[in-house]
Amino acid sequence: MNLTFLVFVVGLIYGIINPGKEDKLNLLKKAIVVGVLITLVFTVLFFIFTVPAWIFVPFIPFLGGIVSIFAGVFMGLYFGIVFVVGAFVGDLIESAIRR
Looking only at Cα atoms, what is the longest distance across the chain? Predict the structure, then answer.
């Protein structure tokens, strides 16, 4: 199953289950914060597991850490937007059901 589709479905379910309109900007901010926190965890793990490589090629942990920070922030933003779109569609479905 595609991870993007799974995030969309979770957002859809979130939009349907929670009553009323969702604050989309607040959801996006929370998604970015969660993405940054997960990124920091994986960056620290990357640094820990590449310490032996530091002896032979010193720039690998540094370069990998920088790349993982950017990738994690962009992934958090991407999945946050997909989640917000799913929540928006869920709100539309919820309002259609209540009519």
Answer: 66
**C-alpha dihedral over 32, 36, 39, 41, to 10 degrees?**
-130
Size of the chain, expressed as the number of residues it contains: 99
30-54 pLDDT, tens digit each: 877 877 787 788 777 777 777 777 7
In the numeric block, which tokens belong to residue 62?
Answer: 């540094």
Q: Is the dihedral of CA 64, 45, 2, 73 positive or negative?
A: negative
Q: Which amino acid is at 25?
A: L
Q: What's the whole-model pTM score?
A: 0.74
Instruction: Identify the CA nearest to 87 among candidates 13, 4, 30, 2.
Output: 13
The domain spans of the chain are 3-98
